[in-house]
Amino acid sequence: MEEVLIVGAGFAGATTARCLADAGHPVRVIDRRPHLAGNAFDLPDAAGVLIHQYGPHIFHTNSEKVFTWLSRFTAWRDYEHRVLAQVDGQLLPIPINRTTINRLYGLDLDEAGVTAFLEKVREPREPLKTSEDVVLNSVGRDLCDKFFRGYTRKQWGLDLSELSAGVAARIPTRSNDDDRYFTDRFQAMPQDGYTRMFERMLDHPRIRVELGIDFEALRDTAPRRFTVYTGPIDAYFGHRFGPLPYRSLRFEHEHLPATAQVQTVGTVNFPNQHAYTRITEFKHLTGQAHPGTSVVREYPCADGDPYYPIPRPDNEALFKRYEALAEVEPDVHFIGRLAQYRYYNMDQVVAAALSLAERLAGLYPAPSAPSTSDDQDWSAP
């Protein structure tokens, strides 16, 4: 009964597991999949190219605490992600910047000119309730329709006007030539891949990992002191109020044996053509040298494993009903994108898990003392 049960071996589960083990708790980690790392799982394909099985995962954060903690388990390869969008027969930078606008409209604007251009074409909206409000308020209707509306329809199965404002607010608009997709202080990829990082994270004498185990098979029988649950919160409660809506993805992987590189950047978006939303070429992300190359096309869909909580007011209201159940569930703690129904980035999940682990270490005194002073690094700033 002293053992902690952690359901899920992705970022939320693995981070919490390592923190609690470092603090002296014996931990049992289970995952229904046959591998670690959740959706960040990577592996060499049949040709030996390191790929991300569930689509590209680009690590970026402004949190020194998160970056330092993860650096215990991996060295890093510096990488700044760049994305192009195929619009009107051109490949243009996204997020929209000065280069995007000048090339799309045949202009030669400086930064001040781009700012003035955007001010002229934008459609002021107040308040900003939907993603359509955010985009029209920022870049106006033509850029909205060319870059955002079609992509959103494919990605979410909804129009921009049907999504909460926070979705579109994730993508900035720039008046300079900065073509990086992210501007975070720390941008890097695990040098040996995500899976190897997770293996090191869970390599601890107080952690045992069991893969291919469904929580439902043991939820009523497994002895444990408390549970950390990272799966879908509605599934935990048997969909008592109905299922929470999620968006899923289908991945089409392809290896091109006679081609060293097919794209000039890691990812190309297709807002208005094809059933897929984007193509990612993995060698850009990993820096791997290989005579061939491997890519993945992403096809959003309604059915399949849950990947993205769908941010809409009615979905949030339904989640709140499940959250109320979770708050009174004895000795069960919910963490992660699916358990908290939040569109978290990887670093946000790690930060939330570090905070949860620190709180749990206070709520539940450890039955054994940490073996080394380094065990407490997770709680340092």
Automatic annotation (TrEMBL):
Keyword Isomerase: yes
UniProt KW keywords: FAD, Flavoprotein, Isomerase
GO molecular function: UDP-galactopyranose mutase activity
Record flagged with keyword Chloroplast: no
EC number: 5.4.99.9
Cofactor(s) demanded: FAD
Domain UDP-galactopyranose mutase C-terminal: 146-343
Similarity remark: Belongs to the UDP-galactopyranose/dTDP-fucopyranose mutase family.
Protein name, entry field: UDP-galactopyranose mutase
Native species: Ideonella oryzae
